[in-house]
Amino acid sequence: MSSDISERVRVLLTTTGASADLGRYFGVDEAKGDPPAFTGSRFEHLDGGGDRADVVDVITAADLIAVQTLSIKVPASAALALLEGRVAEELSVLLAQIPADLDMADADPALLEPGSPADRAWRLIRGQKGLGWVTAGKLLARKRPRLLPVYDQVVRCAVGHPESFWSSLRAALAADGGALHKELLSLRDGVGVPKTVSALRVCDVVLWMSHAAKHRERDCGDVRA
To answer: Which DSSP letter does residue 105 get?
Structure first.
């Protein structure tokens, strides 16, 4: 399955639209001060980022606003649970066990396997009332943008519904000496997207932009977060 994801991403990277889509999403050619065409372009940068040193192991209000830029709504009760109290404390303990300075391409597979701190954090978030697998993944991507990917129904459809997206994507990025990881960074740099945008996020945006319109037109599947 990892080879399938690798081939799908590589095909998209070589299309003439990939660079334009990435630049358009991140507003590379927009005048300074203009509102972003895609609010998700602010996801990783809002309030200095979710992996900022002083907040790297806690969920903050800025993190909850950041996921809203990716069309996510967090119910008030779930937001309070993530910000304070027992759930927030448990999540902070798990986040402290997930590397913040590691790229997925360089990660040991065990870091992403069932039962790992990342998997347990994902399950803890998903277990809050009103939250689902997409929201859990996006919150973790905000906290660990180099290691954990944004993943939603559009991207899942674009890559063929892999059984384990994290493991499959890690294998694809690590293969051949990290060739795909390097290609994603090369595309980012060639377009002029800030270097603070991870290879994972470039991959997500390229996949999402390539399939979002078709996904809506075809009604590919569940659109809940």
So the answer is: G
Cα–Cα distance for residue pair 149/142, rounded to 1 Å = 9
Between the two ends of the chain, the Cα-to-Cα distance in Å is: 24
In angstroms, the CA 185 to CA 64 distance is: 27
**Sequence letter at residue 167:** S
The amino acid sitting at 92 is S
- 61-81 pLDDT, tens digit per residue, is 999 999 999 999 999 999 999
Which ranges of 96-158 does DSSP label H, i.e. alpha helix? 117-126, 133-143, 153-158
Confidence band (pLDDT; 50, 70, 90) for 91?
Answer: very high
Secondary structure, 3-state, 151-190: CCHHHHHHCCCCCCHHHHHHHHHHHHHHHHHHHHHHHHHH
Is there a contact between 223 and 153 (Cβ–Cβ < 8 Å)? yes
Q: How far apart are CA 148 and CA 201, in angstroms?
A: 9
Amino acid identity of residue 171, one-letter, is A
CA atoms within 13 Å, Cβ hemisphere of 162: 21
Residue 31 CA to residue 5 CA, distance in Å, equals: 35
